[in-house]
Every structure is written in C-alpha cells, then in structure tokens.
Amino acid sequence: MIAKIGHGVNMTGALSYNQLKVDKENGEILTMHRIIETADGSFSVAQLLRSFQPYLMANKRTEKPVLHISLNPDPGDKVTDENFKQIAKDYMDRMGYGDQPYVVFKHTDIERTHIHIVSTCVDRYGKKIPDTFEKLRSMDACRALEQNYNLIPATEKQRTGNEQIFRPVDYKAGDIKSQIASVVRHLPTYYQFTTLGAYNALLSLFNITAEEVKGELHGQPKQGIVYFALNEQGEKASNPFKSSLFGKDAGWEALQQHFIEAKKKMKTDPTKAILKNTIEAAMHLTGTEADFKKQLMEQGINTVVRRTGDGRIYGMTFIDHESRMVWNGSQLDTDLSANVFNDWWKEQFAEHRQDDDDARINTPLPTTGKNIGEASDETHELFDFLNEEQPAYLNEDLGLIDALGGLLPEAQGEDYEEQDFTNRMRKKKKRKRLGRQ
Q: Which residue has the higher pLDDT, 153 or 373?
C-alpha cells in the first residue's frame, strides 16, 4: 500500500474534490469520525465543513492546516469496505490523528480502488499535531497495515543511511564535465521518461540541458546528443559536451531505446493513477502556482513548467521521485494538460510579471523548462553515487569537433541544425568550384 500525504490551506477545495467523485457516482463516503451527522444521512461540502471550522478558527500559526491523505492498495488486493474503514482508522491512529475529525471517501473512478481521508492537522485548541518524520512513520504504518490485512507489499525503493543529495551542477565551481557526468551517467538507469523533452525536464533540476544534433559523417546521416551546464536563469553557461564522454547510456541511440522501453513500462504502471489523483488533489488544496509546486514537492514530486516568452504555458511535466517516472501532464489526463494550467495561472502570472515586464520580455526562452524569473526547484534525495571515482575516459581532452565527427558546427549557434545545414551547403559549393577547376 502506498500513502500520499498532502498539506494545504483550502479545506473547501479538499472536500469539494472528493464530493465531486461522490456526485458523479465515482465515489462514496465510507465512514466519518467526529463529524456532525445529518437527519437523512446525506452530506454536502458545506455540511462537512462545519465540523472542521472550530479547529480551523482556533488555529493561529499553522500555515497549512488541511490534511489530505490517499491510501492506495495494490490493484491485486481485494479490500472490502469494512476493511477500508478499519485501515483508515488504524492509519490515522498510528499517525497521531486518531482524535481528529475526518471523512473517509472511497474512489472508484480508476482501476485501483482507493480511499482519501480529509482531516486537519491542528487540534481543537489550535495547536499543530507533531509531524516529525512523517514520511518515515507513514511508510512504517503502511508496512504494518499490509501485514495486518494481508495486503500485497508495496515495492518502494529502500533508502540507506548514507544517501546524499543529487546535486545540481554549479557552472562556477569548475570541472563541469565531471559534474554533468555524475548526473547523466545514472539518470537513465534510475528514471523512466519517454521523450527528450521529459528527459530535459528531469535534467533541468540539476542545471543541465541536452540537445540533439544532426549531420553527416562520410556521407552518412548521423545523430547525437550534446550536454550543457545552465546558469540560474536556465541559460547555457558552458561549452557543449559530447554524450560519448559520459558513457553509452547518455547517447542518442541508448536514449531512443530507453524511450521505447519506458513507454511500455509506464503504460501499465499502477502508480500513474496515484500520481494523477495526487496532482488533482493538490489543485484543489492550493490557490497559487508556488503553493501547488510546494505541495507536490513535499510528496516527492517536482513540477517543471515551460513557458513561452510572453508567459504562456506550453508544457507541464511531473517528476515522481517515488516511482521514478517522468510524466507530461497530458499523458496523465487531458485535465492536467498545459492549457488547463495556463488558464488557471494566467492571471497570477500576469500580475507577477507586470512589475518587471521589460526585463522578462528580453530574457531568452529557457531550454530547461524552468519558469521565467524563478529559481531552480529543490531537488530530491536519491543516490549515493556522488562519491564514486570518475572513470578515466572522463579525463580525456578530445577535440569536440573531431570527436563528434563533424556533427556539431564550428560556430555555437542556438539552432545547430540550421547552422550545420549552412556549413554543409558551403562545403558542397566549395567542392563544386574545385571540381570545375
């Protein structure tokens, strides 16, 4: 069983999200605790909200008093409603929320039947209930519940005590090649992504971008990948590094194969539905882009937003570090596409942009998908490979142009394909003139 815990400010949004499932006959209220009952047994958002109001009004310091939890058994588990009720109660008791008011909703709109629990993390006196080591305690609670109710154990990645932070590249620190290597040599091994755009969204968390280059070698068409370090604004801050410097897994052919295999794995992966529901819940819990991204980050999910120069969102990518999969919003659901988020955040972005409009218009479009004028997102604790010694081939000082076999043009233009085509046309004209002579 996998648990996702969200903290927010909008109790009405959290209740509305779940009640909408009930109204569309894709869900039902299974049980409640410390909730005011009605004469006919039916409930509305306003009716449910009344039970939480005293707690929310008593709160004076907690910024995000709303608690929204989803508990997701394996699709192979056959869990009865009575079991779901008891699982919810046991989980809330183990997490320290057993005396809080809460509502348990069952969702049946996807293949994986699961429950959502809406509650508050401040007690009746307005004091925040301790949430120290919440993630670890939640994992322990899930493992215990799996045993108690004979559920299929979740295949979550086990962490070790010597983990370090998967560090972004610092282009000012020097030895950029080794810094990039520490990232790109391992990402395809640990993460699933289906396009170069999704790969770049993942790389952008570590101040790196990859570009495809095309050209000819001995009359044969060739393709390759080059990598750049990025600065704080998402602009290229280094010379390009050929992918062969970082091993075959970082190259064009290996990435194409990775895309194919990832599509097969991700198509049927059950965590897709969990991520979709987590994102939808975050949309109802939060009111701003910053809060939305922070809400998901607290659950191990990075959000990469790509905007045009005039601020329109044209790409939404979600990086789930728990399942280690990278999804475009439209892959998850049409309601999570770039256009939906663009309409939702349009007014916010316009207001944010107004004070510094001229400067932003002159800012080049980031290739990384970072928001214009926004600092890089916080990364996630992952691996301990940063202490590994760099292989000898990373210290080779090969000429970039020779090593790429003529794939990359001599001039470092923004459009490598266009520049390379121009160079080849020049060479052809030169050969024709020599032939006439």
A: 153
